[in-house]
């Protein structure tokens, strides 16, 4: 198979940029810890209300960091309003009692899916005080557009 | 005896159904834009999510499949000759079964029993007949594909030692890709959705279903793109009076698309639990491998454009070929604009697939903007460009200067509408606006207010872009009806296939189908065995089906 000289240049340039690009992605992911949300803990959608920590969802200040447990269900979150501190890492743990939802805090990088059977998690440190809108951006039924809550970040 | 007439009629049926789906889906799209902007409210018997389900299925799945089948059937006829009796029977029954499936699924959507969107994620539970409809659709496509694939291999057997025609080769890759991809969706529909919705099982593993769905969902986009590239490779050089730069590279690029389109579906699941970071990252890397055949395609297509016949003056300047291209011919114009849209489209795709950046855009309107400037424009506009000569070819009519002028207007309206709508969607998405969400102001939260108030990107602008697009669809239908039923008769309209520049003998490995299918299978196994095993090993509690609408 014959490659034209220009095509060789074009492909070498393209493939080199690709390798550089993937190396940057890998570096920020694994050296700087910018990994996407995830988790492999499981929980039965039917007994979410009974098992800790989701039997008492809410905000738990652990000193250096904060844990937050949220339960999604059609078409609301429990709790539906929380207060969080400024500048402290917040670990969000979320799950759902029924169908798939999302937990998405606008203007942050927190955007994850609530999958029945699993606990999902993500970490974020708020740098700006104010009221943040949390919404569900995965279709969950007739009232999907009503599913929201609020995060109040205080300095 | 099956004659050319038989395949032409079958091809016409597919084209008719494709444009019917586009008309209906486009109408729903218009309504969606208006609803989200708060300009209208739907009557109580029609829900936003019902029309959104129909819009997604009609445009992304149904119209594309019908169009692609019409194109491949006609092109195979033009390069391989007539179908055998068995092949024709397969194609005909495939059409009947898949259409029966579409009608069944559409009826359930219309009745409001399947407002599950075009991704039908479990544990949303539609009427079982919706899933039966989907299953019939997939089975119908397999029958149809089997007919055409058989035609290709029969030709090959009858012409030992000869290079197979390029169009048919590329079409066969496309159909094999479709069959391998649809195994995933067939598995979750047949073994999870149908048993759940009929009540044979009490619960389902949701993450498993999503993984099977996206094993299908990503290669699906290549099922749309490959026929688009086929038109760029096999037809466009002819329209400009030039030659395809390299036949061999076209084949090689398609085979690379085939092997790299499967082991990557998890890039749609980056924000989900149940899949380890390492496997997410691995599939992200494989995702970016399609950059290689994409660059090959870009090179090959642009090098072919450069082969346009030029005047002496145009030959002297480096970019003289640009002026020599037939810009006034809509069959070319629509195609080249489609290509140009693919540049921002591809870049948006790189953003979506970028591992950690994905969380910024996942399920926001950015994604909606992305697929409207990929499948909605490069693919659709190329399909329109194909229609301008395919319809006359199939109906024995002529492509007139009137049709050309209307076509140019159509192309301009579509491009403008798409620029406005998709620009707005990309920008709104970066501001956090969710996709698949009916009108809401989120209790007047200031962060949601921005989506209505930002002057250069807001819901009203999105609706205006949508209205322009809808106008484009109406105009396209006018052209299609004119070309199909009213244009002057002539037997001259042909299937315009380009010749390729001589680029030496073709290496044998390119037609070694066993080799390529084996590589495909091995990559699928490498990418999916552990993630699927993990999901089964987590043994997450099953979810009950639910109707939440
Ligand atoms: C008249 C032309 C069109 C208009 C006005 C339009 C408008 C829209 C709008 C506003 C949405 C977003 C709905 C939401 O997320 O809430 C949407 C979604 C979508 N559109 Fe279009 N669209 C048009 C044409 C097309 C075409 C040609 C295609 C593909 C071939 C397409 C494929 C899709 C898909 C797949 C979705 C996603 C559905 C979902 O999220 O479930 N659209 N469209
Ligand atoms: Cu929702
Ligand atoms: Cu994909």
From TrEMBL, chain A:
Keywords carried by this UniProt record: Copper, Metal-binding
Lineage: superkingdom: Bacteria
Keyword flag Metal-binding: yes
InterPro entries from the UniProt entry: Ba3_CcO_II_C, CcO_II-like_C, Copper_CuA, Cupredoxin, NosZ/Cyto_c_oxidase_sub2
GO CC annotations, alphabetized: cell envelope; membrane
Reactions performed catalytically: 4 Fe(II)-[cytochrome c] + O2 + 8 H(+)(in) = 4 Fe(III)-[cytochrome c] + 2 H2O + 4 H(+)(out)
Domain Cytochrome oxidase subunit II copper A binding: 63-155
Coarse class of the protein's main subcellular location: other
Function: Subunits I and II form the functional core of the enzyme complex. Electrons originating in cytochrome c are transferred via heme a and Cu(A) to the binuclear center formed by heme a3 and Cu(B).
Protein name: Cytochrome aa3 subunit 2
From TrEMBL, chain B:
A single GO BP: aerobic respiration
Pfam family for this entry, one: COX1
One GO MF term attached to the UniProt entry: heme binding
InterPro entries noted in UniProt: Cyt_c_oxase-like_su1_dom, Cyt_c_oxase-like_su1_sf, Cyt_C_Oxase_1, Cyt_c_Oxase_su1_BS
Topological relation to the membrane, as annotated: Multi-pass membrane protein
Stretches that traverse the bilayer: 12-35, 55-78, 90-110, 130-154, 166-192, 212-236, 248-266, 281-303, 324-347, 367-390, 402-423, 461-485, 515-537
PROSITE patterns: COX1, COX1_CUB
Keyword annotations from UniProtKB, A to Z: Electron transport, Heme, Iron, Membrane, Metal-binding, Respiratory chain, Transmembrane, Transmembrane helix, Transport
Family, similarity comment: Belongs to the heme-copper respiratory oxidase family.
Protein's recorded name: Cytochrome c oxidase (B(O/a)3-type) chain I
Organism whose genome encodes this protein: Candidatus Carbonibacillus altaicus
